[in-house]
Structure formats: structure tokens, C-alpha cells
Prior knowledge:
Helix 3 (76-84) links the parallel strand 4 (70-73) and strand 5. The chain contains seven helices and twelve strands. Helix content is 27%, strand content 32%. The longest helix has 21 residues, at 147-167. The chain is elongated and about 80 Å long. With 241 residues, it is an alpha+beta fold. The mean pLDDT is 92. The strands form three sheets. Strands 5-4-6-3-7 form a five-stranded mixed β-sheet. A four-stranded antiparallel β-sheet has the order 10-11-9-12.
Amino acid sequence: MEVLFLRNSDIPQYLIDGVVDAAIVGDNLLIEKAKNITVAQKLGFSKCKVSVAVPKTFHYKSIKDLDGMRIATSYPNTVIEYFNSFGLTVDIHQISGSVEIAPNIGLADAIVDIVSSGSTLFKNNLKEVEVILKSEAVLAVSPKISSETQTILDTLQFRIQSVLKARNSKYILMNVPNDKIETIGKILPVLKSLTVMPLAEEGWSSVHSVIDRDTFWDVIDQLKEAGAEGILVCPIEKMVL
């Protein structure tokens, strides 16, 4: 497998043409330039939004306030489709970089650009008023990929999934009275079944399972109420299912 480092904006066309078999690219670029490209895996990093922003002094009430106005953006197709969905038309000024300065130099009335923390908008006296879409890095696949290469990609994707699943999970160990194990089992979102090992103290067992990171504290509270003690939580390096 050969790894190429390409300019992000060029990747969608390279995927369409079959110049590359697969790529890690922002979902927002595929929506803008290559909607028919298959997304094999969302990767969970480089998260951002494609948003509409206006000057802070703009008295914004709704998207209709921008009807007929000048919009600076690097995502003309996305912008046109979005405004058309409201029956609105805008004057697109396509800019390849530093979109946020356009209103300050009189080039546009508003912008559509990617937003992560919002600090760039703040520095340029802009405010986010609409979110068009949310994006993150994805593993995208060319429609021209060969069956042989697809097999290699499937192996790569399986390994990526193992890492992502581990990142979103925690390994949990706790001491549980034997008469509470069944109750604990109903709380834990186990992979197949609980791992239960007897402790030296009669009537107690060590219970092991996996817990989802996003619901971690809610589940911990339920476990404590159900009688679990000595709860330990450990990171998981990889999870192969």
C-alpha cells in the first residue's frame, strides 16, 4: 500500500478519477465536491461545522435576511444548495482562503466557512448564525478501487474500527455481592456476558465488563446504587469484536 500526502481540496477529484483508492478527508469536502463517493468509516476527529456567519452588528433574525446578499465562501455548491432549499438566492464570491476577512474589506455581507472553536470568527467580529452541516474526518473509497485493493482496505478498516471502539469504551472492574450480580448485569451494556470471578471473601465476586465512555457517569451511579463497590475503570488499547 502506497501512502500519498495530498492537498485536502484535491482529494475528492482524485477519488473520483481513481488516482487514489482511498483517502482520509473531511466529510465537508466530499459533500461539496464528490457526494457520490462512499464513506467507509467516520473517524471521529477533526470535527467542525460549515456555518453561516455575519458581522456582529448585523441584526440577524432568520436565514431570509440574507436573501440576495453577497456570500463569501470556499464551498459554493454547499451554499447554493442550502439557500435554494429555502427558496433564496445569494451572490456567491468564491474565495480559497481567509474567507473570514471578506465582510471587513467590503467584499461580502456574510460568509460560509468551516468553524471549530469559533475563535477566528470572534477575532474578525463575526458571529455564527446558522449551521449548514457538521463534518469530521472520514475514510472515503474510490468507486474505481479494485477487488484486490478492497480486500486490503477491509483489513485496514477493521483495525481502525478496533481502535475507535476501544477509544469510546472503558474496562470496568468492581466487587459485587453475589445476590446483586443479576441486577448489575442488567445495568451493564456487556459485549456478550459478564466476567464473574469469586473473591476470597465469601458471598462476593469480582465483576468485569466494558462500559461506553459517553454514558460512563450515569452507569457508575446506577452500579453504586445496586451495591457495587471498589469500582475500577481502565483504558482499553484496542477492542477486537
